[in-house]
Amino acid sequence: EVQLVESGGGLVQPGGSLRLSCAASGFAFNTYWMHWVRQAPGKGLVSVSYIKEDGSRTGYADSVKGRFTISRDIAKNTLYLQVNSLRAEDTAVYYCARGLDSTGYHAFDMWGRGTMVTVSS
Amino acid sequence: DIVMTQSPGSLAVSLGERATISCKSSRSVSSGPNNVNYLAWYQQKPGQPPKLLFYWASTRESGVPDRFSGGGSGTDFTLTISSLQAEDVAVYYCQQYYDIPSTFGPGTKVDI
Hints:
The complex is a heterodimer of chains A (about 120) and B (about 110). Chain A is mainly β and about 120 residues long. Chain A has no helices and eleven strands. In chain A, a hairpin with a 6-residue loop joins strand 5 and strand 6. With about 110 residues, chain B is mostly beta strands. Chain B has strands spanning about 5, 10, 20-25, 30, 35, 40-45, 50-55, 60, 70-75, 75-80, 90-95, 105, 110. In chain B, strands 2, 6, 7, 8, 11, 12 and 13 form a seven-stranded mixed beta sheet that branches. Chain B has a four-stranded antiparallel beta sheet with strand order 1-3-10-9, with no helix packed on it. In chain B, strands 4-5 form a two-stranded antiparallel sheet. In chain B, strand 9 and strand 10 form a beta hairpin. Chain B starts with a strand and ends with a strand. The model of chain B has no long low-confidence stretch (mean pLDDT about 95). The chains are: A mainly beta (about 120), B mainly beta (about 110). The interface between A and B is medium-sized, with 24 and 24 residues.
């Protein structure tokens, strides 16, 4: 089955860290750009980060630059997001999503169900 | 960053009636001699992840009913549901991917 499954979310104190994972299956993970998108409770969608198929290019939203790091393990078919120095405003469901094509400038054609990150003392 | 806006913020439509959502970008998301539009539409139902409906503004994703249509160019885009069905109740988002990271509109809630 073609799917993305996120994990690693939870409750963390301000200033804390988590590593989010997204396990991909059913498709050639090493040929797709991948993305993290977050959604605060009751709010809209925000692109957080992206990574090229081979990991050679990454990008971040200004709001997370310097605090979040995206990576991927081709052998494990897994996408990661290391989230550090967490703030209350980082509270959200974090989705991983697959890019539609290999250009980097694309829509997202597959999404996981998300993992919830709650930042609170 | 390219800022995306949508209108209305919410709308209520009777079953079988037309629903039209507008999406505007703060600058053009079209490029090239063929005016390719770097614009996508998503549908999100409560408790679910977003689902891709259209990309390149008007290319329908596989499995999307043809009562949905996408159009527009440059900075102005629309998503139309020609005959609203109960299962279309959702929030709809536009997204530009002309610049990356991409940016989304704030969403339009469609209800009956």
